[in-house]
Amino acid sequence: MAHPLPQYGWFDRHTRNCVRYVEFGLRKKMLQGRVALVTGAARGIGRASAKILASNGAHVACVDLSESTETVNSINDNGGTSRGYVVDITSKQSVEDLVHQIHQDTSLHTSLLVNCAGITRDGFLWKLSEKDYDDVLSTNLKAPFLLTQAVAKNLIVSRKLESGSRSNDVVNVGSVVNISSIIGKTGNMGQSNYASAKAGLLGLTKASAKDLAMHGIRVNAVLPGFINTPMAAAVPEKILESVRQSIPFGYLGEPEDIAESVLYFCGRQSKYVTGSVLEVTGGLYM
Ligand SMILES: NC(=O)c1ccc[n+]([C@@H]2O[C@H](COP(=O)([O-])OP(=O)(O)OC[C@H]3O[C@@H](n4cnc5c(N)ncnc54)[C@H](O)[C@@H]3O)[C@@H](O)[C@H]2O)c1
Fold first, then answer.
1. Which of 2, 88, 150, 159 is the one with CA 20 to 30 A from 116?
2. pTM, to two decimals
3. pLDDT in tens, 78-112
4. Closest Cα to atom 38, ligand 1: which residue?
5. Are 217 and 175 in contact (CB under 8 A)?
6. Ligand 1 mean position to 200 CA, how many Å?
């Protein structure tokens, strides 16, 4: 009995696969036409986030205290578009100048913001200096506030100018992703400054999500567990080993695991999600 379906040879299958591949390449990428500002983009989670947003079509402004050359080159060499900016994001003036500069360079307003830059200055509470407390709060909490404010102001004003009044179409105008930490939820020995900042960032996420929802700007947070980056490499191996043993998956996450969540929060798949917190921890402290 003849087979009911047509039989394709290798050549037909190969041709169909080629057509699919070309179609896929031509299809508009999800974040095409968007400008994403990623802080801490020179390495670690920031670099992975910058790369995944660029590979989904966004133009990425890579912001860091250090040069983001490796990140920018990798994006541009792989068909994306990106530019590096060396900026200290704890200064209000520098942040405002940065957002203005990105607009000048791209002729577009930044509509995706990933607040990823962060620092640790660990020490037991009774020994922690005021400077180490202030520096950690300044980078991990104040800077995301300054950036969210600058980016949101620009988006809101530009939309008002374009439409003459507030437009009814306020779906997915912008998206802010704050990289907090599971430590913001649980606390951690020797990290009263870092835990305060990361818990504060969750408060900032929810309050700014409420303020910005009417303008179509969403704000969400990711809580990484322990992730394989230079920041985690600074933790003594003995402590890392005990952390590994307490992670249900038994190993540290990779920066790309966090970047996938950043992509989700930036894309249209999450257009009805705001003020939410996603734990990406391998099950740690669930
Ligand atoms: N790695 C982890 O295990 C882990 C876990 C939970 C949360 N996080 C958070 O994820 C984020 C990224 O962590 P990572 O591990 O990739 O860190 P990382 O140390 O590898 O990279 C942080 C980047 O931020 C930049 N930066 C610091 N201060 C800055 C400033 N004032 N202005 C501009 N850039 C500045 C640094 O130069 C660096 O390139 C941080 O907010 C961190 O707290 C990391």
1. 159
2. 0.91
3. 999 999 999 999 999 999 999 999 999 999 999 99
4. 40
5. yes
6. 16
Instruction: List domains and CATH numbers for the chain.
Output: 33-280 (3.40.50.720)
Residue 55 alpha carbon to ligand 1 centre in Å: 21
pLDDT digits (tens, 9 = 90+) for 161-214: 777 544 556 778 999 999 999 999 999 999 999 999 999 999 999 999 999 999
Edge-to-edge strands, sheet with 110-115 = 81-86, 59-64, 35-39, 110-115, 174-179, 217-224, 277-280
How far apart are the CA of 271 and the centre of ligand 1, in A?
Answer: 27
Is residue 89 a contact partner of residue 63, using CB atoms and an 8 Å limit? yes
CA distance to 65, 97, 268, per residue, from 217 (Å): 27, 21, 12
Active-site amino acid positions: 194
Cα 41 to Cα 66, 123, 277: the distances in Å are 9, 26, 22
Cβ-contact 261, 245 below 8 angstroms = no
Buried b (16+ CB within 10 A) or exposed e, 175-205: bbbbbbbbbbbeeeeebbbbbbbbbbbbebb
- To test the pocket of ligand 1, the residue of 39, 64, 258 to mutate (highest count of ligand atoms within 8 Å of its CB) is 64
Q: Which amino acid is at 275?
A: G
